[in-house]
Amino acid sequence: xxxxxxRTKLGExxxxxxxxxSLYIAYHKVLFYILSYxxxxxxxxxxxxxxLFLRIFFKNKIxxxxxxxxxxxxxxxxxxxxxxxxxxxxxxxxxxxYFTEHTKCxxxxxxxxxxxxxxxxxxxIFIPSVIQYWIQRLRKDQSKNKPYDLIWFxxxxxxxxxxxxxxxxxxxxxxxxxxxxxxxxxxxxxxx
Length: 192
Ligand SMILES: [Zn+2]
Prior knowledge:
Layout (H helix, E strand, L loop, with lengths): L8 H18 L2 H8 L4 H17 L4 E7 L2 E8 L3 E4 L2 E6 L3 H21 L1 H20 L13 H18 L4 H8 L11
Parallel strand pairs: 2-4
Antiparallel strand pairs: 1-2, 3-4
Helix pairs in contact: 1-4, 1-6, 2-4, 4-5, 4-6
């Protein structure tokens, strides 16, 4: 199962480095906003446009909206996961308490990766992330899917968010990360 799968050395290095930088930014809010609105601006702006579009035109479909750390989020449609929108994110409804918590952490993590890597986040994180999501989702043989968070940038997003929530609530939320890492279908059949 999942435990024989490992990241490459480069993947592990990127995972650790991006976590470190992103968490530093998360704990320095002024820096976070400066970076998000300068070199992270493309994603931030695009994110606001999509966010406001959904707030206005999908008003009746929104199940919940709120704030999670620095991010505004809306809950929309059921059982599909989540999507980071610059400094904000959207997430699916009806995923169960734990997976909802997990997805919130994960998408929050991507917002700090955006501040940390700016335009490079688009090329090395967001586009590959969308590709992996759809490959896993559309694959006929779901057992062939590797753990979603095995790839460094997805694992990193989860780690960043879960570390922040763990520190805030003095409770270890990394448990969810580990649990999903060892589930081959993690990220594929989230409605199960
Ligand atoms: Zn992701």
